[in-house]
Amino acid sequence: MARTTVPDLQRLKAENRKIVMVTAYDATMARLVDAAGADMVLVGDSLGMVIQGNEDTLGVTLEHIAYHGRCVARGLKQAHLTLDMPFLSFQISPQEALRNAGRLVQEGQAQSVKLEGGERSSEAIRLIVEAGIPVVGHVGLTPQSVHALGGFRVQGRSQEAADRIVRDAHAVEDAGAFCIVLESIPEDVAARITEELEIPTIGIGAGPSCDGQVLVCYDLLGFDLSFQPRFVKRYAEMEPAIVGAVRSYASEVRSGAFPTAEHSFQRKQAPARLKRVY
Ligand code: KIV
Predict the structure, then answer these.
(1) Which are the contacts of 36, defined by CB distance < 8 A and separation ≥ 6?
(2) What's the pLDDT score for residue 275?
(3) Which of 68, 95, 161, 171 is deepest in the core (most CB within 10 A)?
(4) Domain layout of the chain by residue ranges
(5) If you compute the radius of gyration of the chain from its CA atoms, what whole number of angstroms results?
(6) Residue segments in the chain with a per-residue pLDDT below the cut of 70
(7) pLDDT value at position 173?
């Protein structure tokens, strides 16, 4: 099966079909979300929080994203792979942004790159797109600016702030991005942007009008039940399932109930398949 391309994603918007994006950070999760039919898989710099355990995304490097990009690419059969440009990989100069976007293609198997910011990132977006690398924009709450924003909070509540985000979204489109993530903004602001822009909008905490939605895989799967922000819907509760399963394993190891002959090798058996296939 062929991997989803930028024209395929543009066609989804033209046909009024919603785009499904989900994050993944390793080959196993990538295989699962791909099998579930996600259109786009994002190796987000959210990996700084959900994989590395940090409080924000600022410590993530290009090498981290490229490494996880390679891992995820091995698990994908059909979904489009977008890699996030981490903090300081695109802010210093448009030229440096282009070089780093190119590295994510060469070293991380990116089919497209995502970068935060509207007007302030438009020159970088333009140069990357001119080099033939598709770009996903990202406006509203831009987590790499967490300190300037005073925390992870909803953006665009005042008319002035909403107008600024709309201008930013236009700047991203005008610079050549093929799609844009709208994060944590009031739903009417996202609806206005979706109406005014030709490129697809992908929302996270931006309401139902967007052309698609994105969630962090661990959030939608309920890996951490203590984390329940308003924009997340949980489609599974994996935390108790995993803790319960590992508890059962631990108790059977301690009691000697695992492993039995069924899980052990005998000399005269036919060779078993030990290799994992992605
Ligand atoms: O880093 C990330 O995972 C993201 C999405 C939440 C949009 O930017």
Answers:
(1) none
(2) 78
(3) 68
(4) 6-220
(5) 21
(6) none
(7) 98
Pocket lining: 44 vs ligand 1, CB cutoff 6 Å: yes
Which option is the CATH number for 6-220: 3.20.20.60, 3.40.50.620, 3.40.50.720, 3.40.50.10860?
3.20.20.60
How many Å apart are CA 42 and CA 217, to the nearest integer?
Answer: 10
- Write the DSSP symbol of residue 28: H
Query: For every residue of 134-149, which 3-state class applies, written as one string?
Result: CEEEEEECCHHHHHHH
CA distances from 215 to 150, 229, 270 (A): 23, 12, 44
Which residue has its alpha carbon closest to ligand 1 atom 5?
A: 44
CA of 41 to the centre of ligand 1 (A): 10
Mutate to test the pocket of ligand 1, among 21, 52, 204 (most ligand atoms within 8 A of CB): 204
Q: Tell me if 216 CB under 6 Å of ligand 1.
A: yes
Look up the pTM and report it.
0.96
Cα 139 to ligand 1 centre (Å): 11
Is the shortest distance between the CB of 83 and ligand 1 below 6 Å? no
Which residue, 175, 115, 183, is CA-closest to 154? 183
Q: How far is the CA of 45 from the centre of ligand 1 (A)?
A: 6
pLDDT at 216: 98
pLDDT of residue 1: 77
Residue 183 annotated among the catalytic residues of the structure: yes
DSSP state of 51: T
Helices (H) and strands (E) in the chain, counts: 11, 8
